[in-house]
Amino acid sequence: MQDADVKQAFLDYLTHVYDKCNDHLLEQGHKRDQVIAFYIVLLSFVVTYGRQLAGEANMMVIDLGLVVVGWICVRLIADLRSWHKQYLDCIEIINWAMAHQQFFDTVTALKTAIQALVKSERGHGPDQLAARNAKQSGGESAPEAAVGVAAGTARQAQNPRLRWPSLSTDDAVYYGVLLMTVLPVLFTTHDLLTQLGPWAGWVTAAVVGVYAVLGYVVARRYLKRVTHNGLTYLTWILDFDYAGNTLTYNNRYMTVSVEGERLHVTQKTGGVVIVAQYEGRFVLLTSQRGERELLEFPRGFRERGESGVMAAARELQEEVQVPRKPYTGAPTLPNAAVSDLIDLGELIPDSGLITSDVRVVAATLHLAPQPHRTHYEGIDGVTLVDEAQLAALISDNDIKDGFTLGAWSLYRAQRQNR
Length: 418
Description:
By secondary structure, this protein is of the alpha+beta class. It has helices spanning 3-54, 56-100, 107-121, 126-136, 141-157, 169-180, 182-192, 200-231, 308-320, 387-395, 402-416; strands at residues 246-250, 254-259, 262-267, 271-278, 281-289, 292-296, 299-301, 338-347, 354-355, 358-365, 379-385.
C-alpha cells in the first residue's frame, strides 16, 4: 500500500471517528435536556400545586426533597459534561488534523502531532512531550515539526480552569439548574423564619445567599473534578494507535489494522454460517453485499459469549423470521421452530487476511422461512433448493460466496463420512 493510500485510509478513519463523536454529542445533549426538563416540570408542579395537595405542614419536607433531587440533577449534568468534554476535545483535535494534514507527508508525522494534542488535553506538558518525541525520532524533521506545531496549538487551546464570569453556554445551563434549587430553599427558610417578623426577610435573604455561594463552590469543584477525571480515561473514541506504525479501527465485532502494506482483520466474537433445511430443501438468501447481489447461506457475527449453536438460532430469527420460542402449530412436528442444531466445525474464510472463529451449524426448520427485509440486514429474498439444484448453482458459478461454499463442503463431507 502506498503512503498516499495509507494516509487517505487514516483520514477516512478520522472522519468516521468525527461522525461518531458528533453522534455522541447529540446523545449527551438529549440526555442533559431530559434531566433539565424533568426538574423544571417537577419544580413547577410543586410550586403551583404543592400546598394545595400536601398542605402547609408537609411543604418543608417536599421543599427539602426538591433540593435533594436538584442536586442529583446537577451531578448528572456534570457527569454528562465530562463525556461531552471528551467528545468535543476529540472533534477539535480531528478538525485541527484535517485542516493541517497537507503539511504532513506521512501518517506517522500526523499521528505524532495528534498525540501531542491528546496528551496536552490530558494534562501532559506539550513541551516535555515535544522534547521526548523529538529525541525518540532521532532528529527527523517531520515528526519534530509535527510535535512543535501541535504543542503550540495545544498551549493556545488549553483552558484548565472554569473561570467566572466568562461562562460557556454549557456552564450557564449547569449553574442555571443549580440556581433553580435556590427556590425550594427560599420557601423552606421563609416558612421556618416567619415568626421573626420584620427580620424574616433579611435572615431569609442571608441564608439563601450563603446557600447559593456554597452551592456554587461545591458544584464548581465537582464539575472540575469529573471533567479532569474524564480526560484521563482512555475511551474508545480516543483510542488511536498513535505511537506505532499501525493504523487500527475497532468496533465490537472486529479490529482492522494496517501496518505498512499489510492489512489484517481480527474478529473478536467470531461468526456463524447456517446450513438450514426446510422440508428437505436448503435455505438460500439473496443478500445485498455492497454493490453485488449474492446467493448465500444465512450467516452473521456471533455476540459476545454466544456459542455457534446459540448464534445460529438467533440469526435464523433475525434473518428468516423463524422464532426461537417453542413451536406448537403442528403437534406431529418436533415442539420447536428450529431443531437438530449441530455444530459441524470451524471455517477459516481467509487465513492470510482474517483471524476468526466462524462456526458452521446445521439446522432443521419447522416453519417456512420469510426474508427479514431491512436496510440493516440487506436481505432481498429467500430461495429453497434441493441438493441437485444447489449443486447446479455452485457448478454454474451462481453461488460465489466463500462462506457458503466452505460450509457446504464441510456439510457434505461430514454427511458422507457418517
